């Protein structure tokens, strides 16, 4: 009996998803190990901002993965055709069919969904098993930071964290942070993974963080992962926005003691963007008249003290 007649459809299904491919040569059926290739890339929204924890699922092999904090994902699949589904809450699902014959790297864009959701009832279960061991973690978005009230100044990251249970501010109106009784210098502040050793301006009246460029913040006040070693009290992991890769956009705001401006846009559309945020205080506008009057009354000992602080933060990511 020829080999073509011996191999039935059921036999062919037996080999699907096993990583083994077969080939008929004469009267013999030869089995080969399929090569594995990596499908990787970044997942972004329409404006170019990366999306975290997007679900990537292969409908053929029933395997999947998640995008990381930089929106990057990587999944290793057998050679051949695959159908990948990208899903994220609040965005439309994207299904991409690929024929893997080599490693692939690209960018996947998701569009926001305007679908109205029905009411959801959440019921607690005291007997449910523990689903996570992560405790003491608070996550904040840019929208949450910019809606927080801060006396005398613009929205402030550190003063927002002072309102969390277990965190004390120390001196009123200043940006000190004492977590669970620890010292102010026992907190680790990270800006896109880079440690910051000085986070205050004007003796602590302002923090050095401009909320216009902040994308999200993870605040660990206890039980923080070992990769954040080096501090005793807490970890503040700040991630900044990548910048709009489609069009130019800017904002500005004026406060009682400072002013802010932020500008973003593409350098190479869909490839490279920039995001720049700057802030300046008006403190010197109040101190200059006072020292002018002081110098008039004491011309032999003139003083010229001006203390305007400025903060500039910039970022220019490139997607390969």
Automatic annotation (TrEMBL):
TM stretches of this protein: none
Pfam family, one: Plug
Domain TonB-dependent receptor plug: 154-231
Domain of life: Bacteria
Record keywords, A-Z: Cell outer membrane, Membrane, Receptor, Signal, Transmembrane, Transmembrane beta strand, Transport
InterPro entries: CarboxyPept-like_regulatory (IPR008969), Plug_dom (IPR012910), Plug_dom_sf (IPR037066), TonB-dep_rcpt-like (IPR039426)
GO annotation terms (biological process): siderophore transmembrane transport
Topology versus the membrane: Multi-pass membrane protein
Record GO cellular component, one term: cell outer membrane
Localization per record: Cell outer membrane
Chief location bin: membrane
Key word Glycoprotein present: no
GO molecular function: siderophore uptake transmembrane transporter activity
Record-linked PANTHER family: HEMOGLOBIN AND HEMOGLOBIN-HAPTOGLOBIN-BINDING PROTEIN 1-RELATED, TONB-DEPENDENT OUTER MEMBRANE RECEPTOR
Family note: Belongs to the TonB-dependent receptor family.
Name of the protein in its database record: TonB-dependent receptor plug domain protein
Organism: Phocaeicola coprocola DSM 17136
Lineage of producing organism: Bacteria, Pseudomonadati, Bacteroidota, Bacteroidia, Bacteroidales
């Amino acid at each position: 009996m020829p080999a073509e007649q011996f191999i039935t459809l059921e036999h062919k299904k037996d080999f699907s998803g096993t990583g083994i491919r077969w080939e008929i040569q004469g009267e013999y059926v030869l089995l080969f190990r399929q090569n594995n290739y990596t499908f990787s890339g970044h997942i972004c929204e329409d404006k170019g901002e990366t999306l975290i924890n997007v679900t990537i699922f292969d409908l053929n092999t029933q395997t999947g993965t998640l995008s990381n904090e930089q929106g990057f994902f990587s999944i290793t699949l057998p050679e051949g055709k695959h159908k990948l589904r990208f899903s994220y809450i609040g965005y439309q699902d994207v299904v991409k069919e690929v024929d893997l014959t080599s490693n692939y790297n690209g960018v996947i864009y998701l569009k926001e969904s305007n679908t109205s959701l029905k009411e959801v009832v959440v019921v607690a279960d005291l007997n449910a098993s523990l689903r996570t061991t992560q405790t003491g973690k608070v996550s904040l978005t840019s929208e949450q930071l910019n809606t927080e009230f801060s006396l005398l100044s613009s929205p402030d990251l550190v003063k927002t964290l002072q309102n969390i249970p277990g965190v004390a501010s120390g001196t009123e109106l200043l940006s000190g942070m004492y977590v669970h009784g620890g010292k102010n210098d026992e907190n680790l502040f990270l800006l896109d993974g880079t440690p910051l050793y000085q986070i205050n301006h004007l003796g602590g009246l302002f923090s050095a963080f401009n909320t216009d460029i902040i994308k999200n913040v993870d605040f660990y006040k206890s039980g923080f992962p070992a990769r954040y070693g080096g501090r005793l009290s807490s970890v503040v992991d700040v991630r900044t926005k990548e910048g709009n890769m489609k069009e130019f956009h800017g904002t500005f705001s004026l406060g009682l003691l400072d002013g802010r401006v932020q500008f973003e846009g593409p350098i190479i559309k869909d490839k490279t963007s920039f995001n720049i945020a700057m802030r300046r205080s008006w403190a010197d506008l109040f101190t200059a008249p006072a020292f002018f009057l002081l110098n008039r009354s004491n011309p032999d000992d003139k003083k010229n003290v001006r203390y305007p602080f400025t903060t500039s933060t910039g970022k220019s990511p490139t997607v390969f």
